[in-house]
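Thread title: Can someone regenerate the structure for this chain?

I was given the following input by a collaborator and told the matching structure tokens would be attached. They weren't. Posting the sequence so someone can regenerate them.
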Amino acid sequence: MRASLALIVCAHRPRATHTQCRSPLDHAAAAHALPVVVPALQTYTKASAIIYAYYALQLFAIPEKFISDHHERPADAPLKLLVFFVRGSGLMIAGVAYAMYKLDVPLKLLVAFNAMVGLVYPWNAAYISKLPVKYPMHAMPEVLMAGLTVAGVLAL
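Best answer:
Regenerated them for you:
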């Protein structure tokens, strides 16, 4: 897999010359339309970062609305405590989104992270812990994380 990604990266370079691409396989990759994979990988990474940034902004800026849109709050759950944790989660997710957008995050790590976030957050809330989620709003993160996970697995 690393060799094929190296081939694709080399083939994708603007004005790739014989000195830039060292092996005959590199030249073969450059001759075939393989550069499409690199922009697809970048698109997957950027899409993941933008989705997390959007959720982070909501969690940090409007935690009460986010909670009420997605969950039936039990009477014994204090709103101030929920807001405290939701806002803090928003800040951490914003850091992750920034790292995805600016750093060279390996695809396997990004796909694993997306799958774990789907498992820990939306799928856990709805199907494992069976929390009182509100539909249709809660369907969005369930479908979004499933889509990101499947797209990532297909990109591996």
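Residues 1-19, 21-34 have pLDDT under 50 and may be disordered.
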